[in-house]
Design goal:
Length: 103
């Protein structure tokens, strides 16, 4: 039996069900995009957001991508302290960016 190796599949065993329901391929793409941005770019794209918020979101997105990579290699334990960053990232910010950033 061949299993797909997407980040969502791997994380399904690691994250609470409510978080998994929010994880979609489009969301992963959004996180990748945020991780590749500089905070200044994010501030320009979301001109009503504070610079500190932009710095935090970019940092969380970058950490999230590291965690997704670790998860793909099966090196992410259920007790990894930073797993909450993934949950945080998939809350309020993601819905904002899905509506604002359409490129």
């Amino acid at each position: 039996m061949h299993m797909s190796e997407t980040p969502v599949d791997v994380l399904a065993l690691k994250l609470p069900e409510a978080t998994i329901r929010r994880l979609k391929d489009a969301d992963i793409k959004t996180v990748e995009m945020l991780a590749s941005m500089e905070p200044q770019e994010l501030c320009r794209a979301t001109d009503y957001r504070s610079p500190g918020w932009c710095v935090e979101i970019v940092a969380i997105a970058r950490r999230c991508m590291e965690l997704l990579e670790l998860a793909k290699r099966n090196k992410l334990s259920r007790h990894t302290p930073h797993i909450q960053l993934i949950e945080k990232l998939f809350e309020e910010p993601l819905f904002i960016f899905n509506n604002i950033i359409t490129c």
